[in-house]
Structures are given as C-alpha cells and as structure tokens.
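Hypothesis: this fold can be encoded by more than one sequence.
Test: take the structure tokens below, design a sequence, compare later.
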C-alpha cells in the first residue's frame, strides 16, 4: 500500500511540475498582436518517425518594420492565408494564434 501511495504522489508531483512549466512559458511569452502584411508562405512535408507524413507551415510577416517568421499550427488556416494579405495577427512566441483579415471599404 505504501509503494502505491508513493507512486501516486510522485505522479502528482511530476504533473504539477509540468503544469508550472507551462504557466512559466505562457508568462515568459505573452501574446502579442499587431497589424501586418503576409510576405511569404512556406510549408515542408516529410515522413515522420512512424511513417506518417508531417506537414509544417510557416508564414513570414512584416510587422512594425520587422520581419517575423511564425509557425502556423492549423493547416486549414494556413491554406486560407494568401501572400500580400493585410490584417491583424496575434502570436505567442513563434506560433501564430489567429489572423483576422482587414476589410477596407
């Protein structure tokens, strides 16, 4: 019984440390947003370790006179983006969270 209890406590400790590391990363990399223009779209496909195809998508944006390269996690939203689109991007670290196209009358 004592060994089971120690295993459960160790598992809870590991889960707690992982959660604290996630909160630390979120605090260290707050979400930013800016008006931008998409300069370039890139995607890479390769076979993963289990034999399935892995698709990684990147966009380069011009934001506040800086060129930033972001990774797009959602493949469908990557396909919806077009080069030279203008809008507001929200990102955390090097990952794009959302992109809203600006509508000009």
């Amino acid at each position: 019984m004592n060994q089971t209890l120690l295993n459960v406590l160790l598992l809870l400790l590991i889960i707690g440390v992982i959660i604290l590391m996630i909160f630390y990363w979120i605090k260290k990399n707050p979400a930013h947003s800016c008006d931008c223009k998409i300069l370039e779209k890139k995607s890479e496909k390769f076979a993963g370790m289990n034999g399935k195809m892995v698709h990684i998508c990147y966009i380069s944006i011009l934001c506040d006179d800086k060129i930033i390269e972001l990774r797009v996690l959602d493949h469908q939203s990557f396909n919806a983006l077009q080069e030279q689109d203008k809008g507001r991007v929200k990102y955390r670290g090097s990952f794009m969270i959302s992109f809203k196209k600006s509508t000009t009358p």
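The chain has two helices and five strands. The two ends are 70 Å apart (CA to CA).
Hypothesis status: open.
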